[in-house]
Design goal:
The chain has ten helices and 18 strands. With about 325 residues, the protein is α+β, with helices and mostly antiparallel strands. The protein is about 20% helix and about 40% strand.
Amino acid sequence: MSDQQQGWHLVGWDGITVRVPADWNIGAISHEQEGGYLRLDDEERPRLEIKWSSPDGFVDLEETVDKYLKQIQHSRKRGQPEIEIDRETKVISRRKAGKDSLETFAWSAEQNAYGAAWLCKRCGRVVITQVIGSADDQNLPELAQKVIATVTDHPSGEWTTWAVYDFVAEIPQDFKPDKQKMMAGLIQLSFVRDTEKITVARWGMANVALRHQTLDEWAQQEVGKALRRYDPQSEPIEYRQHPALALTGKQLLPWQGVQRLFRHLTNQPFADQLRGYVWHCEPENKIYVIHAYLDHANYDLAEQIRDRIVCCQDANA
């Protein structure tokens, strides 16, 4: 049975991926040089927390988990019931989790949680994750095991999966997250690598957006301002049997020619070209956008990213 049939979906952030029930979506995100934090909520409460870090030197995993649980205990507010810790529970086995080292735990109070922690020998990340539910949820241990078994802590190849609110894109690993917009009707993620920049986005309610204007007119209005310094040009095309636009542009002022030459002589990229695509996915009623400022050696990257963005399954089949 597929994840779609089961009602589960993929969430991915900074090399972390997990499959969760469809009504769990991002409630909080933080990203820092040494680690990050991801929380998924349903309509009632936080349901999943994942915390990761990349410490230097020896890691005592048991001690790391004990410190984490002490933080949870210290977060209890006055008047709330005591938090009972269980370090003996076997939430998931090493085999099912696919981990060489594993510590599991549970805690209970007004709500219950089942969690696990591990150190990845390949990427060096320490990951602590817990699934949270109501105190009377008898299915919580089984659900926690299923969810934790899907957590990955690093990309399997050269591309990092970023997946939020069913918007799934893949970006080269060496591009770092820059800015994000996650709101009703718009998901937009930007990434940088030296002078190069990639932005991927998805707009909802395309039928409303395109009711009185063409896709090209919409793109000029919604995307054009961000791209104007590259004097963007659009060409109508078809992509995945959808109406689409190919975007190109160039920014090269006289002084930038010298800068580009210097950077190329020192094997550094210089982003002087705009490449992008816009397409209207009618079955999903959404508009997808990818635009990138790239060095001339990487022009095909925009097309590669476009082809890795997931839109209507019928078109991708």
